[in-house]
Amino acid sequence: MAQVSEQQARQLVAQYQDFQRNAEMIQDQMNMVRNTLAGCESTLRTVTGLKEAATNDVESVIPVGSGCFVHAEIKNFSKVIVSVGAGANIEMSVEDAIGFLNDRKGKLEKMLQDLNTSLTNIVQQMQSIEAVLNQN
């Protein structure tokens, strides 16, 4: 392969740095999606567990904020208030809430998969640039 001129090398280095910044942004996004997914899975387990235990009064520990929790007894577990985004909440049946959470989980998993694909493509492009620059 032909040698790369100094100007082309500078352009490749700049392009490599852009890819590097993009890769870091994607990794940050992936971490946020993973955290959101973990929260969604935890909520899904909790709601499902409460549904299964709802035949009797259920004792639980309820978060009240700032890392504080209270012991509570849940006497009626037929409705769940679900955040649907933009500060809006909707009251749903337990079954609908579980379906909504499963749908949200699926979308988050798909988002994580898409981000991973993008990151893989960027890494491959970075490796191509490295190969060209290492030939000089």
Describe the protein's topology.
Blueprint: H1 6-53, E1 58-65, E2 68-74, E3 79-85, E4 88-93, H2 94-134
Antiparallel strand pairs: 1-2, 3-4
GO molecular function, one term: unfolded protein binding
Keywords: Chaperone, Coiled coil, Cytoplasm
Subunit structure: Heterohexamer of two alpha and four beta subunits.
Short description:
This protein has a single domain (6-134), classed as Helix Hairpins (Orthogonal Bundle), CATH 1.10.287.370.
Q: Which descriptors apply to this entry?
A:
136 residues, alpha+beta, Helix Hairpins, two-stranded antiparallel sheet, two-stranded antiparallel ribbon, 2 helices, 4 strands
Descriptive report:
GO terms for molecular function: unfolded protein binding. Molecular chaperone capable of stabilizing a range of proteins. Seems to fulfill an ATP-independent, HSP70-like function in archaeal de novo protein folding. Keywords: Chaperone, Coiled coil, Cytoplasm. This protein has 136 residues and is α+β, with helices and mostly antiparallel strands. The protein has one domain: Orthogonal Bundle (Helix Hairpins), CATH 1.10.287. It has 2 helices and 4 strands. It has helices at 6-53, 94-134; strands at 58-65, 68-74, 79-85, 88-93. Strands 1-2 form a two-stranded antiparallel sheet. It has a two-stranded antiparallel ribbon with strand order 3-4. A hairpin with a 2-residue loop joins strand 1 and strand 2 (68-74). Helix 1 (6-53) packs antiparallel against helix 2 (94-134). The chain starts with 5 loop residues before the first helix and ends with a helix.
